[in-house]
Fold each of these.
Amino acid sequence: LDVSGVVFHYRGSDDRYSLDFERAKAACKANDASVATPEQMRAAFEDGFERCDAGWLADQTVRYPIKNPRARCYGDKKAKPGIRTYGRRFANETYDVYCFVDQIGR
């Protein structure tokens, strides 16, 4: 899978897990980015990206990438590396967000 660009984690200024889906999209847009797709997250994971923070993706699922499983970061894959998923969530639930930018310093 070849995706050019960068996936980055964004946390609201209020607190961890404070963004509903609309606020998550707005946060990425305010940073000249878009909400990352599952394919972009997969490419970032394959490039070594890891975060123990659940965040929105563009398909309204909530996921996080883990290379080195550890307590509180096992998710649905127990002690195996991979992208954890909470599945599709209601838009009013709050999490962080993973954004995607195709160029740094536009």
Amino acid sequence: FFFFFFFQAEDGIRDVERSRGLGDVYKRQVSTQSTWERHGFPHSSADQLNVIFDIIGTPNEEEKSFVTDAKALEYLKTFTVRPRVDFNETYPAAGKDAIDLINKMLLFNPYFRITVEEILAHPFFKSIRESANEFVANKPVELAFEKEGDLDATRLRNLFIEEINFYKTKTNKELSC
């Protein structure tokens, strides 16, 4: 769950970077809906920021410092202030290192969030990391679909199905050997 959340947040930040700001992402989200009331905007339980803020708490001024779009800042001010979840209470059986890692990954401001390199070097992974087997790519990974521009839901769904089928076939072949 936590790695999914972290990478989902990263995807959201990439969307923000491609647009003119968080306000544009929100504006696009709202403009695709026929009415605010039908979907509970703003602040329904289906509102992604509402769900995120239930976990990480509502961001304070310092945490919002990377947001530059005035409409986005106004929107963020409309959320009810709530505290960050205490992961020690939520996951009492988790070790100190696991809680520390979760707390460093689940931050609203991407500039305050732990980096991938710091995650890999974190004590939580000390017993399983084999740095001798790691390598750093000499250029960024390019995925063909990223060159297609904006993907509609049908195209995105088809790409997911292709990927699932590829690995499903690959796994079946490996199991039969």
